[in-house]
Every structure is written in C-alpha cells, then in structure tokens.
Specification:
With 937 residues, this protein is of the alpha+beta class. The chain is built from 14 helices and 47 strands. Among the domains are: 256 residues, Neutral Protease, domain 2, CATH 1.10.390; 104 residues; 186 residues, Porin (Beta Barrel).
C-alpha cells in the first residue's frame, strides 16, 4: 500500500510540475539583459532596465489593492517576487508555486474585448495579485500540512485539489471587475458564453461544463467561475467566499471540500447553489424559457458534429465572400465562398490575434514568430497575401506590429506598434518592402487599437485612453493630430471597418455587444438590432452587410442586404451613458481602483543569480524497483535548476545520493551532476565483487525552438562528458582492479511540425530526426551510434494520423558497455545486440467522444484507437541476423480528466506475435498502458 500511495502522489506531483512548466521559460531571456528591483512590504518587482515607470505603477497598484480589506480572503501576507517580462508579444500572466513567484507579460492585447480596453498593467496587476492573495490565505489545515511535508509544489497540489480552478480564475476576474474599470465582468463579450448556450436550449451536464469537449463549444472555467463567484457574493455577502475557501483549503470535509463548504455556508446543496446561480442569470438575460436562435440570416448551417467558427467576413464582389474559418479538426485559414462553393485560399500562419484586413485584392495580417534560443523573446510580423494568386510575402522581421490595415491603392500599411517600454504608436510602412517611414505617438493615448485607412490622409482608430475610456478618433497622417469622432466613454468599442464614409463597429450595450455605424457625412450614429447574444466583425460592401454572431456553436456568419438592414438612429448620449455587465453594484462603485500614479520607490540592481539554488519543493517517487526522494530548486529568474536526491534500489539493495544543476543563462545550457552509490555487488570469475560507485558528468547543450510561418521547429545539439570511478570494498577488494572509466555522448535532434487542432492526436504533417553517438575514452574500445526518425502524415479522415518510425543502432566493438536505445517490437523482450534495425507503423484515429463523467471523479472525453505493425531486426557481432521480430495489434486509449481538471491518458494493448519466440507457444499478448501522457493537450 505504501508503494502505491507514493506512486499516486508522484504522478500527481509530476502532473502539477508539468502544468507549471508550461508557463515558465527556463533561461528564456538574453544574456545581456540587466535587471532592477523595487522592494516593498508586499512584493519585490523585478524588471528590465528602462522599464522603471511601469514597475513603479505595478508597485503602486499592489500597494493599493492589498489595502482592500473588505475584499480580502484573509489577513495572511507573504511577500512575492513579480517579474515584468517586456520581451514577449503575447498577453498573459501567471502566479506559480515552485518557486512562489509571478510573471507579467507586459505587452497589451490588441483586442479591446479580450481581455479589455483597460490599461493592461492595471488589469494584469489586479488579476494576478488576486492569485497571490489566494495562495497566501489558503495555507490552512491539510493544505498547510502538505506544504510542510512536500514544500511549495505539495502545497499547490493540495490547494488545487481542494479549490477548483473555476474559483481561482472566477474570483480573480471578479476582483478586477470591482477594482478596475472595464474588468471582464463588465464586458458582454466575456459574459456571452453561457447565455449563448441557454438561448439555444442546450443543457450540458455539470461535468461537461467543468471538463469541456473536443467536439462542442463549452464555456471555460473563467466564464463559469465569474458567474458563480459573482452570484455567491451578491446572494450571501462577499465574506461568503472567504469562509468557503478557508474551510475548503483546510479540508474541513475530506472529500469534495469546497462543495461541502458551499453547502455549509449557503444552507443549500452545491447542486442547488449552481442551479440557482444559473437561474438568476437566465432571468437577467430574460432566458427563463429558451428557444432556438433564428438562423434565417446564417450564411452556413451550423456544424453539429464538430465546432466550426467563422470570423471577419469581407465581400469581394456581389457573389464572393472572403472569411476566416477554423474548427476543432481544421487549422485556421482564409476561405472564399462563391457560386461554385467554398474554396480554401490559404491556411493562416501561426498567429496570436485573429484580426486581418482586406482591401483591393490584398489581405494583410500579423503573424507570430519567436526567437530560437531566448524563449521570452517573440515578435509579430506583417504578412501580405494576394487573393488572386494565393502568394504570400513576409514584409517585416523581428517586429512588434499589431492589427495592420492596407490602403486602397495597396501601397501603404498602417499598424499599431508596441515598443519594449510599452508605448503604443501608429506606424506606416511601404507595402513593397515593409520599411517604416512614419510613426505617430501621443503620450495621452494608452493604445491605438484597430487602425483603418479612411483615405490617403486620415486613419480611423479606437483610442484606449489612460483614464480607461475608449473613443473612435480620426488621426491626420501628416500632422499626427487626433480628433475624437465619438466622445471618450466607458462604452467599450471593438473591431471597426470603414467603407464609403461609414465606420462600422461593435460596442457594448447593457448585456450585449451590438452592431453600430457612424456616418461621417451626417455625423449620426446608428444601431442595428441583431439576434444572438453578441454580433462582431461587421463589414459592408457591394450592398451586403456581413458579420459574425456568437452562438452555442461559436461564431457563425450572417448576412443581410444593406438596404434592408433595420438601422436605427441612436443619440450619442444614449451610446456613451449606457451601463454594461454584471457585477455586485453594492461595492463596485466604492471600491474601484481606477488608475494609480507611479510611486517613487527606490530602485536597485537585481543580480540574475540571486538565491541560485532556492530550494522550494521535495517529493518522493516510486518507479519499480526504485524509491527516491528529491529536493528541487529554481532561482526566481529561472536560469538555474537544481536537484538533490536519494535513491534506494529494491533489487540490488543499493543506496545512491546525488545532485545536479543546470545553468541556462548563457547561450548553451551548462549541466553538471554527481552521484555516489553505496554497496554495489556483482559476481565476476565466480567471486563476489563489492564496490562503491562514483558517477560524474558535465555537459553543454544548445536548445533551440521557434515558431515561424506555419510550423514549429525544435533543434537540440549537445555533448556530455561522463566519468565513473569504482572504489572496491569487502574481503575481495584487492582481487579486482578499481575501475576508472570515462566516455563522451553527443546528440543532435531536429523536429518540424504544423500546428495541431483540438482533435488532432498527432500533427497532420511533421517529422523528426534524432541522432546520438557515444564512445569510450579509456579502458574500453567501444562506441555506439543511433539514428531514429518519425514521419507524421494525415490519415484517411480528419483527426486521423499515420505515424511512421524507423531506427538504426550499432555498437562498434565486442565490449558493448552502452545499453540499447532502440525499442524492440511490441510484445518482445529486449536483448543485447550488436546492431538493431527497427520500423513501426501506427494509424491513430478517434473512436468516440463520450463527454461523459462519473461522480465528479472521472470524465471520459475521448476514446481513440491505434492499429500498429512493428518490425525489429537484431544483428550479432559479425553483422549477420540473430533475430527477426514482428508483431501487430491494436491499442485503445482513453483521454480522461480526473476531479474535473486533471488530464490523464491511459490505455490497453492487445497484440499478436508474427514471429515465434523459441521455447514459447504464446502468440497473443496484452498490456496496460499507464500513463501515455500527464500533460493536458
């Protein structure tokens, strides 16, 4: 039982570490970066040189947020390190345990709705510091015990098992909605998910809502969490969640502690609490009696088999419509629908924003690229696609451009650019070569969103002002002067399109995002009532009005004749003074943080190797036949990784102690390690040999990985030097020579693959090559070479994958001191061989998407199968065949989630041995596969 407990605990801790690693980037910043710090009583802000003003603002925000006692989850305070990362163009942030720290990706989102039009640093600080407060105050009861026993990762495991992820994110969104104007709880765009389901009459089970689906649209835990947290605070008072999470994190009620705490403090069952919350919102949206959404305006029928979405429609002619389409089994691409049907123009390059613009036969958009070595460094580059020829050009390199637009004559491109110091600017480039020739900056503007050419002299853009208001404005290209078209207001304005003197856009109105246009000639605002819970991406040309409506099946295209559209004039006062969103009004107004002026705290240099070991977690592990206990450390800038470990081997009764450290702050990783094993034993020449073994290694590797165009690439190059010394012990120690043996190991691997979709088991296209070479430097005349390759191909249907593998291994002497690297055909035991040739063919395909769960413990998301054939040829030292092994069979794998948030894949294998094993009649074999993955897709 103790072994099983340690194994299960190890699996859970490894799973947790895998999730943390997704967010963190080891050694991701350039070597030459210099860092500074601001120390307060609540946080240490670590930031790049030149980012002082932003760091002072973050420090001020945190100081003010920490004073909101009524909104707190408790009085506990533990100082945290917060790193401001200005290199990535991705908008994000996270708080992690192991070590306890937070990283802010400081580049704002180009989308006013996702996450919002608020100053990004304001929203990011309020949201992420809420996670800090959560971790600080959940240190109770059994969670506190786990922290003592296993460190920060053990604490995170306990807390995440007790408090579901919907509360973590929902509470943080709720906090930003109270403390910051335009927090996501005030935006209909953020709130649209559940109303869309209710409007369509879809009633998913609680477990499907919690775990999602690979075929249907299901709201995420942010959407769910905000609704439940907001409802609980409104119905039972804000301290309701303080009491609930205190009991849950302490495990007052060992099984489903949060559910029991909700029942204890609300007086009703957890199920009734959820249902009451949903009923409350249905009443707010007037959806007590849902009906099917009218689809008379739909361009396409909704795909009920797999989620398929459409966005950014442009009318190319009276009959041809350009749009962007993506689905759970198709990569995002540009499509044209005409009288002859639908055709793919081109798959879109890897992108972090969906927006693109079209004019006069040209598509322009921003695509994502990353630096090969420094993983924090990324770019947004401009792509120009010719609709007539399908040819695409990359106009810029290592740039930071967002939401580009092209002029009517096709000669000029305008884009929003964001510099490393966070300043937004309008940049003008020539369409021939992408060279910038003009930049417009205005210090009173926080962000120039979604710029569009009105004519050769004027740009229309949505301004994000520093007071968190938005406005549509005209920018004079020559003078740089800015004139507001709509007054600055709290009404958030989204994507805009310009045609024939009209500015089409989406804006928030109460609980819905509606379509509007502003007529520049008449100076009049118009509104178009549309079906659904929100309408987006409007454009008009050739007397056709096109847009996307959000539904229970995602974004769907709708179209109407412009002349028949029921546009209604709307007074500007009604537009700017409307109220949006759902939030607890009783404390919303009095607790808004608004913007904060920078502090004038003292800044100091921050050394990269501050606390280089920084041990934070420790955990046991069992992998038959070895028990181990490992202590883990990482410095705050994540340039060093350290392990100290102890291992006990049940089979040979040995004890091993060792350590390893990797430094990632240079261009190559530098690794070194050492371990000492006590009481090794073996029989040689009919005599018992006993010895202690000391193993050491040092190595360098260059890990490169980057995204560009439509593929991800990974290149790893490395060499390691190993040295082993044996110290003879026991009564026969003088009868054996003490071993001193060293060897070198080299490796090169290369992988390239296209993006995967939600339903893809493996990439539709891709390949990988891996070569390794090891050779002894003394004592033995031995070497071993290995080469392996994999080819990923599309199958007969979408989400099917054909994977072909091949491997070759050969040892160059009779003294084969290096173990096999090549897997034998499934069903056969490995054997020592001078040479091995192997080939595998696997055909993977989905069988069923059950979307079914049991007792909030196990959720079955997908059942998939694999049919395989394996071939292995083993050679003896003379190079002749010693064995030919072949097997075939099938595997059934289940993609599951446990406790509504932890992904795990396991399976079963049944095979047939095509080659007989001497002295054995067995033909069939059966195996249990656990686990095939611990990292969520």
């Amino acid at each position: 039982m103790s072994r099983f407990f340690i194994f299960v605990l190890s699996v859970l801790l490894i799973f947790l570490q895998s999730n943390i690693a997704v967010a963190q980037q080891f050694g991701g910043n350039p070597t030459g970066m210099r860092w500074k710090q601001i120390n307060t009583d609540t946080a240490r802000i670590i930031f790049p040189e030149g980012f002082d003003t932003a760091a002072q603002r973050v420090a001020s925000f945190i100081s003010r947020v920490s004073l909101r006692d009524q909104l707190s989850l408790g009085k506990k305070l533990k100082k945290i390190d917060i790193i401001l990362q200005n290199q990535p163009v991705i908008t994000n942030g996270y708080v992690s345990m192991g070590p306890f720290r937070s990283e802010f990706y400081t580049t704002p989102s180009p989308d006013n709705y996702d996450p919002s039009s608020l100053s990004w640093l304001t929203q990011l600080t309020v949201h992420e510091y809420r996670h800090v407060q959560q971790y600080n105050n959940f240190n109770n009861g059994l969670s506190a015990v786990m922290k003592k026993l296993f460190g920060q990762e053990g604490y995170a495991l306990a807390v995440n098992a007790a408090v579901p992820n919907w509360f973590f994110e929902g509470d943080a969104v709720y906090s930003e909605s109270l403390l910051a104007p335009h927090g996501r709880g005030t935006l209909p765009f953020f709130l649209k998910a559940f109303p869309a389901l209710w409007q369509s009459g879809k009633d998913y089970s609680w477990m499907k809502i919690r775990n999602g689906s690979l075929k249907d649209y299901v709201p995420n835990h942010y959407d769910l969490g905000y609704l439940l947290v907001n409802y609980g605070s409104r119905q039972y008072g804000y301290d309701f969640w303080r009491k609930v999470t205190r009991d849950a994190s302490a495990y007052r009620g060992l099984f489903y502690p949060l559910q029991q705490a909700v029942q204890r403090h609300s007086g009703i069952s957890y199920k009734d609490f959820r249902q009451n919350a949903f009923n409350y919102y249905k009443a707010q949206y007037q959806l007590e009696n849902p009906g099917m959404l009218a689809d008379s305006l739909n361009v396409f029928a909704s795909n009920t088999k797999t989620l398929t979405q459409y966005s950014f429609p442009f009318q190319l002619s009276e009959t041809d419509l350009l749009y962007q389409k993506s689905s759970n089994n198709q990569r995002t691409g540009f499509y044209i629908r005409g009288p002859e049907g639908e055709r793919l123009l081109r798959l879109r390059d890897i992108s972090i924003e969906d927006q693109y613009s079209y004019r006069n036969g040209k598509i322009v958009y921003a695509a994502y690229e990353s630096h090969p070595r420094w993983r924090w460094v990324s770019y947004n580059v401009i792509k120009l696609l010719d609709v007539a020829t399908g040819q695409q050009r990359t106009l810029t390199h290592q740039s930071r451009y967002f939401s580009p637009d092209i002029s009517a004559d096709g000669k000029t491109i305008v884009a929003n650019s964001v510099s490393l110091d966070g300043r937004s600017a309008l940049t003008f480039l020539t369409a021939d070569n992408g060279n910038p020739f003009r930049t417009i900056v205005n210090d009173s503007i926080s962000y120039f969103s979604n710029p569009k050419f009105l004519n050769d002299s004027t740009i229309i853009t949505v301004l994000r002002n520093k007071d968190a208001t938005t406005a549509i404005a005209a920018v004079d290209i020559l003078s740089g002067s800015i004139k507001n078209i709509t007054p600055p207001s709290s009404t958030v304005i989204g994507n805009i399109a310009v045609n024939n003197g009209k500015i089409y856009f989406t804006a928030s109105k109460h609980l819905k995002d509606e379509l509007f246009y502003y007529d520049l000639a008449q100076q009049q605002l118009f509104q178009l009532p549309t079906p659904g819970v929100g309408s987006y991406f409007a454009s008009s040309d050739f007397n056709k009005l096109n847009w996307s409506v959000f539904t229970a099946d995602g974004f769907q295209l709708q179209q109407a004749d412009e002349i028949q559209a029921q546009w209604q004039p709307l007074p500007m006062e009604a537009f700017v003074n409307n109220k949006t969103g759902i939030v607890s009004d009783s404390i919303h107004a009095s607790y808004q943080l608004m913007t904060a002026s920078p502090t004038h705290a003292v800044t100091q240099p921050y050394r990269k190797l501050t606390h280089p070991f920084n041990f934070h977690s420790w955990r046991p592990n069992y992998s038959d036949p070895e028990f181990s206990f490992t202590i883990y450390g990482n410095n705050i800038l994540n340039t060093t990784e350290t392990q100290l470990y102890y291992v006990y081997n049940e089979n040979d009764k040995t004890h091993t102690a060792g350590g390893a450290v990797t430094y990632g702050g240079l261009f190559p990783y530098i690794s070194l390690g050492s371990n000492y094993t006590f009481d090794r034993r073996a029989v040689a020449s009919k005599k018992l040999r006993q010895w202690n073994e000391w193993n050491n290694y040092i190595g360098a590797s260059i890990p490169l990985s980057w995204a560009s165009n439509r593929t991800y690439k990974v290149l790893n190059i490395g060499s390691n030097y190993y040295y082993r010394t044996d110290f003879n012990t026991g009564p026969t120690k003088n009868e054996f020579k003490e071993l001193q043996f060293s060897y070198l190991a080299h490796g090169v691997s290369w992988t390239q693959q296209v993006q995967t979709t939600t339903q893809d088991i493996y990439p539709k296209w891709g390949y990988s090559v891996n070569t390794q070479f090891r050779h002894a430097l003394n004592l033995y005349d031995s070497w071993q070479g290995y080469a392996g390759a994999a080819l990923y191909l599309p199958g007969l249907a979408r989400a099917h994958s054909l994977v072909l593998n091949g491997a070759l291994q050969y040892s160059g002497s009779e003294q084969r001191v290096f173990g096999n690297r090549t897997a034998f055909a499934r069903g056969y035991a490995g054997r020592d061989s001078a040479g091995i040739y192997a080939a595998r063919a696997n055909y993977h395909f989905p069988v069923f998407y059950p979307d079914w769960g049991f007792a909030n413990i196990l959720y079955l998301q997908r059942i998939r199968a694999n049919v395989f054939y394996d071939y292995t040829q083993a050679l003896n030292k003379s190079g002749t065949r010693s064995a030919t092994l072949q097997s075939t069979g099938a595997e059934i794998c289940m993609d599951t989630k446990w406790w509504n948030q932890h992904s795990l894949t396991f399976g079963f294998r049944a095979g047939y041995l095509l080659t007989a094993v001497p002295g054995q009649d067995r033909k069939m074999f059966f195996e249990f596969i656990l686990p095939t993955n611990l990292i969520p897709r």
